[in-house]
Amino acid sequence: MAGMFSLGLSTGAARKPNRFYLAYGSNLSLERMKSRCPDAVALGTAVIPGYRLLFKKSKTGSYATIEQDANCCVPALVYRISELDEALLDRYEGYPRYYYKRNFRLSVTRLDSGRRMKERKWCMAYVMHEERTLGEPDMEYFRLLDEGYGEWNFDTDILDKGLADSIGIRAAGEYIERCQRG
């Protein structure tokens, strides 16, 4: 992988998954995540309390982000990632221009056993800068998130509310109707 060498992370230590990453957007897709982060391993699920899902504009469209809201929570897929994976995600997510990193100490429920891990884990998530404006996501992107929510048994009402909070209730209803028609 040519890009790996330009990042200076070709050593074995840089390739060992040793940190936790929270995916709440397109990286809910195992296939997409594997193509972006070769060392990533889906470990479990978690809930980010005190945050809500929104869609905000960046250079190429409107994408998922989270924002503080004491009355909400956002489900996430927890990956164990390597230093190389994090560097690749930084590039993909547009860090630090569009997103910054935020760490959360969360309970993680393992995918393999369905049991909660004994200790809470420090997990990193990318958060879009708050000053970015709200926007309507591309329908293909929204469908990808909807598929991810379904695959991981996340409450799709959270996804729908995130859309409504971003573009308005009426517009979201029309958008979802168009999305379901295909």
UniProtKB/TrEMBL annotation:
InterPro entries in the record: AIG2-like_dom (IPR009288), G-Glutamylcylcotransferase (IPR017939), GGCT-like (IPR013024), GGCT-like_sf (IPR036568)
Keywords, sorted A to Z: Lyase
SUPFAM superfamilies with a match to the protein in the record: Gamma-glutamyl cyclotransferase-like (SSF110857)
Gene3D superfamilies attached to this UniProt entry: Gamma-glutamyl cyclotransferase-like
Keyword Zinc-finger recorded: no
Coiled-coil positions: none
Pfam families in UniProt: GGACT
Record-given protein name: Gamma-glutamylcyclotransferase
Organism in which the protein naturally occurs: Dorea acetigenes
